[in-house]
Specification:
- The complex is a heterodimer of chains A (230) and B (87).
- Chain A has a single domain, classed as 3-Layer(aba) Sandwich (Rossmann fold).
- Helix content of chain A is 23%, strand content 25%.
- Chain A is built from 5 helices and 11 strands.
- Chain B is an alpha+beta fold.
- The chains are: A alpha/beta (230), B alpha+beta (87).
Chain lengths: 230, 87
């Protein structure tokens, strides 16, 4: 198999990462080659795509994701992202991408104060508008940005996923954490960096429940293949 | 010279502060019915070595802007400095 057919996808493990092993497993399950990357690594081992996994890197000290952004591996991730490489940040990974300035806005404490751990529905913000069942598990997933920044995000179509009802209705009632405009996932202007609070790596194997997360890995693999011609 | 600084990081005005809200909600149960506008922030102390107080302060403001606070959600104030005891 060519590298392009079977993308090599790195997963960066920070001190306090929790979902790195599930992410590695999901990559293999979805037909990719998982590549563990350590936070102290200075390069990404030539991967075609990279995932910043969920967890509580550096104990969420100072702010979620604030310290992880200075890890040596993040310098490599930034260069990779700047050169068009596909980067997926999940939960804490999303928080790290916001802190690193690779995505706009910030993630703060859930509006209801509680840590939320349950299956939710998100609607993809593309032409098809598929509704995906994916779990969330976070205490700080309320997306916010200044009114001007939020307007820019909407104008440029950067919202990738919004929280919704099981039949796809987007409304504040179905937004578990109070996120602005029901935002569950966000991409950058070039479309190669995606951050989301739901955990697609926990939703790929039909033996374990709904498989809404498969779409996210398909996006990541497609972006990786596009970048590395066969 | 070694100078000690205190930095207060607070959530921007108008931004919902769930911790402040929870504390405000709890105070009346202790009989404090006269409290409003509770906001929770962070207090950071550090010692900086620099040639002058102005230089030290500019370093502290730079690190506050780029790391100790997140300008998307927080404001910061560099509160005070005093000559730190030599180590």
């Amino acid at each position: 198999m060519t590298a392009a057919a079977r993308p090599r996808v790195g997963v960066v493990t920070f001190p306090g990462s929790l979902d790195d092993r599930d992410a590695l497993r999901a990559i293999r399950f979805m037909g990719g080659d998982p590549v563990p990357v350590w936070h102290a690594d200075h390069d990404l081992h030539g991967v075609d795509a990279v995932i910043l996994p969920g967890g509580f890197s550096y104990g969420d000290y100072l702010r979620t994701g604030a310290i992880a952004r200075f890890a040596p591996a993040m310098t490599a991730v930034r260069e990779f992202a700047d050169s068009g490489g596909p980067v997926l940040g999940i939960c804490n990974g999303f928080q790290i991408l916001c802190e690193a300035g690779l995505l706009p806005g910030a993630l703060i404490r859930n509006r209801g104060l509680s840590f939320i751990c349950r299956w939710i529905n998100v609607r993809m913000q593309d032409e098809r508008g598929d509704v995906l069942q994916i779990p969330i598990k976070h205490g700080e997933g309320q997306f916010i940005a200044s009114p001007q920044e939020l307007a820019r995000i909407e104008d440029e179509g950067l919202v990738a996923l919004r929280y919704c009802s099981p039949d796809g209705v987007v409304d504040e009632r179905f937004t578990p954490n109070g996120s602005a405009n029901a935002i569950a996932g966000l991409r950058n202007q070039h479309g190669n960096v995606l951050g989301l609070m739901p955990h697609p790596e926990h939703a790929v194997d039909p033996d374990l429940g709904p498989t809404g997360g498969q779409f996210v890995f398909e996006w990541l693999f497609a972006a990786a293949r596009e970048r590395v011609p066969a | 010279m070694r100078l000690r600084f205190e930095i207060v990081v607070s959530l921007k005005d108008g931004l919902l502060d769930p911790q402040g809200k929870a504390i405000q909600g709890a105070l009346p149960t202790l009989g404090w019915e006269n409290v409003s506008d509770v906001r929770v922030g962070k207090h950071i102390e550090l010692v900086v070595e620099a040639e002058s107080e102005a230089e030290a302060r500019s370093h502290v403001e730079e690190m506050s802007r780029t790391f100790l606070s997140n300008p998307v959600i927080e404001d910061f104030r560099v509160l005070s400095s005093e000559e730190a005891s030599a180590s």
